[in-house]
């Protein structure tokens, strides 16, 4: 099969690899219909995560089940499935509490930018659609695999909801879909922080009521002006740098909630300031599996259109261009067709 492999920073290749095989009776093999490049793949692409040996890339997927192990019960060959970027049993106490990405049996799902993918713990990881959906719905279902689910979790962790003012820091696909999530969850105000015109437009299309282009102290000041001088009830941090975290903590009101979905890279938290301001801070790798049934339904019923984050569509063979375009911010998110 063809698969996307990173050899070194800025060196992404599509090459022939052995087809994946069932390794455990709980595995499934999925023929990938659509994959994509994630903002988190760019940490590796830019050399910020060490690359010790060539690594198969990709963790977002929608596809058709080809084969299942003897113990798989809930999905069968021929079904269209979406799954999370971490495999989980969905039955242990941690999963049942809603934290499937910390499942006691969790395993990363990697190598999705390829023709075929092995998914461990298929019963707990994959969600099948009731019937084969129209082809135009597949990109939306693909977003549920990570960026939509992650944005959703960020909004939930920030306690977005009716009567709340929600700020989203970060205008990548996750941030934009956190805007969509906050609007869907009924937030009264949704304030997107973005300086890029096409992303500002998409934020508005997803339900933002205001856009703040300023950053730093000025950005915080603008948020306070929009929120009776108090700051937002809810802030989603969808970047993971010190600057974005400082922005998020500055924008939240005393007693407010910060939902963190940007993987922190070199971030220090001001514990004393957070203590005195009663800031609730929570997040982590999104337990996308918790939200998959709900999100798949919203997409299938065409009540949301998260696929608008894909502004570049390529053949899998051109995966390297998909990475370069996102790295250079020429694209928000690259869709790959195997
Ligand atoms: Zn579990």
Description:
- By secondary structure, the chain is of the alpha/beta class.
- It folds into two domains: 2-146 and 287-337, Quinone Oxidoreductase, Chain A, domain 1 (Alpha-Beta Complex); 151-283, Rossmann fold.
- It contains twelve helices and 18 strands.
- It has helices spanning 41-45, 93-96, 122-125, 138-144, 147-157, 173-184, 197-205, 216-226, 242-251, 271-276, 288-300, 319-327; strands spanning 2-8, 11-16, 28-36, 55-56, 61-68, 80-83, 86-87, 107-108, 116-119, 126-128, 165-169, 189-193, 210-212, 232-237, 252-260, 280-283, 312-315, 334-337.
- The strands form four sheets. Strands 3, 5, 6, 9, 10, 17 and 18 form a seven-stranded mixed beta sheet that branches. A six-stranded parallel beta sheet has the order 13-12-11-14-15-16, with helices on both faces. A three-stranded antiparallel beta sheet has the order 2-1-4, with helices on one face.
- It is globular and about 60 Å long.
- The mean pLDDT is 97.
- It binds zinc ion.
Bound molecules: zinc ion
- Proportion in helices: 25-40%
Strand content: 25-35%
Quantity of strands, as a count: 18
**Domain tally:** 2
- Would you tell me the overall average pLDDT? 97
- The CATH topology of the largest domain is given as Quinone Oxidoreductase, Chain A, domain 1
Count up the helices: 12
What are the segments in which pLDDT stays under 50 over at least 5 consecutive residues? Answer: none
SSE series: EEEHEEEEHEEHEHHEHEHEHEHEHEHEHE
Q: How many angstroms separate the termini?
A: 10 Å
Would you tell me the structural class of the helices and strands? alpha/beta
* Highest-level CATH class of the largest domain: Alpha Beta
